[in-house]
Amino acid sequence: MMTQADYRAVIAAHWAGETDGAHDLGHLDRVWANAQGIAHELGGADLEILWPAAYFHDAVNLPKNHPDRAQASTASAQWAADYLAGTDFPAAKIPAVAHAIAAHSFSAAIAPETLDAEILQDADRLEALGAIGIARMFHVGGAMGGLLFDADDPMALHRPLDDKRYSLDHLEVKLFPIAQTMRTAPGREMALSRVEWMRSFRSHLLRELG
What Rg, from alpha-carbon coordinates, does the chain have? Predict the structure, then answer.
């Protein structure tokens, strides 16, 4: 059977350096760690399914503003299924891996139908929260040509929220609400804790801005 190092090496070779700072090997390592933690708390998960699902969930990684972004997770699922079919991975479990990958994406809007899929979705969404979520938010915003915040109205008190132009707006537009979408109790608890930290970060930022 393949090991964590094997899965990691496979996706690294597949990406061939074509990754961004928010979707790199570190992201995959953290998603796997999140999935392990949630699975340990819940019991009943199949780590043999979660392992390749965590490392292959972004096999096809498209930018946030790409017109086919919503199809990226299903393309990743197909890539993973095709790859695993050529290995000694149990054939009967390949559909479960593919489903977990397809359902992990926020933009795909595919409801997870298994515990493993719920865990992977939560594990990936935790990456959008907390300190790492803040770092990834500003990184992606900058890569898309956005500004850190609206210097005249950082809290959008007198303008519509616009997270394509201002990264800080993304907290209210998408990231804070993510905690309410978590599928598992451990995932939800971790998400709420991370959201609390993000609110504290924003308060500190606003104080520095005066």
Answer: 18
